[in-house]
Amino acid sequence: MKKHLVSVIIPTYNEENHIENCLNSLRKQSFKDFEIIVVDDGSKDKTIDKIKNFKEAKIIVKEHSGRGPASSKNLGVKRAKGNILVFVDADEILDKNYIKRLIDPIKKGKSKVSVGVYKIYQPKNAWARCKYKNTKQLFHQSSKVFRAIKKDKLLKVGGFNTKKGYSDDQVEGLGKIYKVKNALFYHNVDTGIKEVYHKSKWIGKSVISNPKSGKFFIKIGLMLIFLALIGIFSIINKTIVYYLLILALLGMLLLVVKKAISYKDIRLIFYSPIFLIVSNMGLFVGLFNDIIKRIKR
């Protein structure tokens, strides 16, 4: 085995709209000594067909689908020949020097783990603007997230936790993660309403097993209280229900106008309410499904 052979591992599930751009960006990398392992989690669209156009990619289709990206990554690690692992999401497009710069501190022995930075691929997309405060700024990844790692280090900590869901890339026991500020990739994320819903649903169903911040739970709690009040007053006094709904609409309108002014984008007056409704609906559906699943165990 070469000293610095790299294995690039990509988990996929219904990524027909993104995977080609991702793989094309890998073809253009200035660093060439790597293998590509795509682990598909039972896609129901044309993801597999599109991957087959790239002879450089080794495709692994999981026998039991629906286990999530952490399970796919762990399977990719088992099949990887490289001693340095790079994890890429299917909706990411890499700068041509991304891999070269990302693995540089690992090759030089400065760290066994590293992470780069990202920008939103379509900063003017209305749905992306609904989610982010500033789609043009450079986003530093969380200090717990990594993108490249020595294989022996990942195996030592037990790989990815399949119960973590949306934050499976926050692996415990890695120590300090080296931030490579010039290792840039573009995230093609939440650019359609279906994607917004499914991403929110995915987050919702893994909230219990992977709690978020206190601010997140305050938001959930307030929404549950509001729904409870609607239910109670619909029986006691329907007039109060109307006032509560008007209050909620005014609050939403305030957020929508603030977002539109911030971006100077009139489209957001239309898009933002839909985004708020759909994303919260997905979040609650995912959370409710997870609760029912736990009760049935």
Pick out its properties:
16% strand; alpha/beta; 297 residues; Spore Coat Polysaccharide Biosynthesis Protein SpsA, Chain A; 10 helices; nine-stranded mixed beta sheet; single chain; 2 domains
Number of helices: 10
Number of domains: 2
Topology pattern, helix = H, strand = E: EHEHEHEEHEHEEHEHHHH
Distance between the termini: 45 Å
Mean pLDDT: 88
How many strands appear in the DSSP assignment? 9
**Quaternary structure:** single chain
CATH superfamily of the largest domain: Spore Coat Polysaccharide Biosynthesis Protein SpsA, Chain A
Structural class: alpha/beta
Helix content estimate: 40-55%
Kindly identify the CATH topology of the largest domain.
Spore Coat Polysaccharide Biosynthesis Protein SpsA, Chain A
CATH architecture of the largest domain: Alpha-Beta Complex
| CATH class type of the largest domain | Alpha Beta
Radius of gyration: 21 Å
Form type? globular
Query: Which stretches of 5+ consecutive residues score pLDDT under 50?
Result: none
Write the layout of secondary structure elements.
Layout: E1 6-12, H1 19-27, E2 34-40, H2 47-51, E3 57-61, H3 69-79, E4 84-87, E5 92-94, H4 98-107, E6 113-120, H5 126-131, E7 139-140, E8 148-150, H6 151-156, E9 178-187, H7 193-204, H8 214-236, H9 238-263, H10 268-296
Parallel strand pairs: 1-2, 1-4, 2-3, 6-9
Antiparallel strand pairs: 4-8, 5-9, 6-7, 6-8
Helix pairs in contact: 7-10, 8-9, 9-10
